[in-house]
Automatic annotation (TrEMBL):
This is acetate--CoA ligase. InterPro entries: AMP-bd_C (IPR025110), AMP-bd_C_sf (IPR045851), ANL_N_sf (IPR042099). Its EC number is 6.2.1.1. SUPFAM superfamilies: Acetyl-CoA synthetase-like. It holds the Pfam family AMP-binding_C. Gene3D superfamilies: 3.30.300.30, N-terminal domain of ligase-like. Residues 69-147 form the AMP-binding enzyme C-terminal domain.
Length: 187
């Protein structure tokens, strides 16, 4: 998790009219630390990577799991540069796991690699976390500040891409067109 010991100039100081709620929400989970609600990992070079909201949970066959767990397992594979995971309606499981995966430069998208990634996640987390659908993504829809727009990914995975909402803040809107054109869930 991303928890910070020190403050910074643009940090929120309170919730207007409800300071107690502010303290309870952001400072009670880890005493003495500001809890952002995000997960993160530190790479070998010392850089921190935001892995996603720790409260972004999907329910697969009655098992609740964080999407960040599956994403972390996918990006631990040496051929994967980036991954985003969302839930989508599944006839048997209730929610299935839909993964968007961007490979490292020079790697090829193959069916063999898709199967390898499913096995990789099974080994890292367990069978319940196996992605049902893996979509190769040349990039992920991000804001100019680098935040992945999971709302858009969720809509595409649900095959409900007609009303994606505001996409004006995306750094590269063409990524969305590619994801829609190559979506795996065409129900």
């Amino acid at each position: 998790v991303l928890a910070l010991a020190d403050s910074w100039p643009g940090q929120m100081r309170t919730i207007f009219g409800d300071h107690e709620r502010f303290v309870e929400t952001y400072f009670s989970q880890y005493k003495g630390y500001y809890f952002s609600g995000d997960g993160c990992r530190r790479d070998a070079d010392g850089y921190y990577w935001i892995t996603g909201r720790v409260d972004d949970v999907i329910n697969v066959s009655g098992h609740r799991m964080g999407t960040a767990e599956v994403e972390s397992a996918l990006v631990a594979h040496p051929k994967v540069a980036e991954a985003a995971v969302v839930g989508y309606p599944h006839a048997i499981k209730g929610q299935g796991i839909y993964a968007y995966v961007t490979l490292n430069e020079g790697e090829e998208y193959t069916e063999e690699l898709r199967k390898e990634l499913v096995q990789w996640v099974r080994k890292e987390i367990g069978p319940i976390a196996s992605p049902d659908l893996i979509q190769w993504a040349p990039g992920l829809p991000k804001t100019r500040s680098g935040k992945i727009m999971r709302r858009i990914l969720r809509k595409i995975a649900e095959n409900d891409y007609a009303a994606l909402g505001d996409t004006s803040t995306l750094a590269d809107p063409t990524v969305v067109e590619d994801l829609i054109d190559n979506r795996m869930n065409r129900a």
